[in-house]
Design a protein that fits this description.
7-stranded mixed sheet, two-stranded antiparallel ribbon, 9 strands, 7 helices, alpha/beta, 252 residues, globular
């Protein structure tokens, strides 16, 4: 506890010095030492959602995470790691959190691509194969967990990333506030840039560093699936993530 000083008298020099020694010292963020985990959502065995054209989400996630990782390393974030896990869905979630904690990560960004609840799907045929789509919703979304011990930092980074995505002309997915989302309905924490609260997400809740989940876009929406496969959209997202991480590091 910092000792109280009688403001009616001059404090002895040694006491002033002692108080000053207890003041916190700002630690500058060095990009080359800033440990970033890019978590590739899902696994080859439990691949997540299926796109409108019958491509598994895991492939979208892995490709985008690799692009982001390459950009971050080129901008000096040498300690960036693309994390790929295997196995069944739920056990893999605990593996992700454990790997991030073991690596003493400063930031975890989990990369995903979005779908909708099954009741909203419509059937169609693509290249002779039966498929499912929903063109009703589109856009990115960001999720944070209040169970994360660094919730404040997680929310701050999510807002920075949302600002960068919005500044590049992207809209966030607004359907998560609607009753039709059922058990997937979430509280909107930032209505300007699309940050939602999702406390139960293991990769966020059990990670000791700041952690954010990015749904980069909807692959069940036929038009947006095509956009997500385009180099132009991928470059836009990669640039937004790199800018947000650069600003987040700079503010530490």
């Amino acid at each position: 506890m910092v000792p109280q000083i009688d403001r009616g008298h001059a404090a002895p020099a040694r006491k002033v010095a002692k108080v000053r020694q207890k003041m916190p010292v700002a630690v500058e963020c060095e990009p080359r030492r800033f440990r970033i985990i890019l978590d590739v959502g899902h696994t080859p065995e439990a691949f997540g959602a299926m796109s409108a054209r019958n491509d598994p989400e895991f492939g979208f996630n892995l490709h985008l995470a690799k692009l982001i990782g390459e950009r971050l390393k080129s901008e000096g974030f040498a300690a960036t790691r693309v994390l790929v896990t295997d196995g069944k869905a739920r056990p893999s979630l605990f593996k992700r959190a454990a790997a991030a904690n073991d690596a003493h990560a400063d930031l975890v960004l989990s990369i995903h691509h979005d779908s909708v609840p099954d009741k909203l799907l419509e059937e169609w045929e693509f290249e002779g194969a039966r498929g499912w789509f929903s063109d009703r919703f589109s856009g990115y979304s960001l999720f944070v967990s209040k169970r994360n011990p660094r919730f404040g930092a997680s929310l701050a980074f999510a807002r920075l990333l949302g600002k960068e995505l919005r500044g590049r002309g992207l809209q966030y997915a607004s359907q998560y506030t609607l009753p039709l989302m059922g058990r997937y309905r979430r509280q909107l924490l930032d209505k300007d840039v699309g940050v939602y609260r999702y406390d139960a997400l293991i990769v966020l809740a059990q990670t000791r560093s700041a952690a954010v989940l990015l749904e980069a876009g909807s692959i069940i929406n036929r038009d947006e699936e095509m956009a997500m496969n385009s180099p132009e959209r991928q470059e836009l997202i990669v640039t937004a993530v790199a800018a947000a991480i650069g600003e987040f590091c700079g503010k530490r």
